[in-house]
Design brief:
alpha+beta
Length: 328
Amino acid sequence: MASSLTITSEQMFACILDGQGGAAALTREALDAWTSSLGTLWVHLNYTNHEHQDWLRRHSGLDELVVDALLVEDTRPRASALDGGLLLALRGVNLSPGADPEDMVSIRLWIEQGRIISARKRKLLSVSDITERLERGAGPASSGDFIETLVDRLTWHMSDTVDQFEDRLAEIEECVVGTARPDLRLELAAIRRQVITLRRYLAPQREAVSRIISEPAPWLDTENRQRLREDNDRLTRHIEDLDAVRERAAITQEEMLSRLSEQLNTRMYVLSILSAIFLPLGFLTGLFGINVGGIPGSGDSHAFWLFIVALGMVMSFQLVLLKWKRWF
């Protein structure tokens, strides 16, 4: 047995839970020699690794249906009971640097009395949390503790993401109240897209956790079920918060479009007023600019300035008329 509980993408991770919150890592040779009398086994692998796939098919002893479910490329959150065990597919928020929160990481599990097999493609922070707890001697002691701890960590990491959505939306709402910038529409659209995608996975995950609670698995004790209910309640609140964020984003987007439309109408109104003012002036200047005989004042040296005064009087009359009509 080795002492390190470090998980890598290239190597298969295996350990035995000591029942006291700690674990001892296993080598590949020790894994093949494992028996249920040694303690609860946890095997964590990468379902895209061919060596790991070969171990699942040839050495895990799992039913072919379970193996196929663990290795399938795409899956939605679900829970299915089979031969005294549970086949699970759960999702966690992608917290990797530069990753989109809605790009959720999938983890598939087979859990039974005395054995846990989990598979993933990308690193999941919730799994790292479990290994860190095991190293401190404060990790899960059994299969029931393991699934409860995993669901708890998945749900808690979602809390930060949901809070970020609410904070971002609050900032946008404040900007919209102050000034409705056109670029805010892109931010609102991005928030709505991310929230819709995230909720699409959280809703079936809530149903999967409910299914876990209702299953009569002997390795799930009363305390495990109670904690899973609390996790499910928290997950339900996250879904409700996401629904609220989506509705607030839609209302904010409508308000922003209304303000932008109002600003556009105001500008068009001003341009219409200016056009109305200069329309008769343009007509008069065009009329007196034709090069034919008989134009009034063509022989008078003061005619140009008199014409300018007349244009000023026409403009003043128009402004008084528009003000009297309350058009501006």
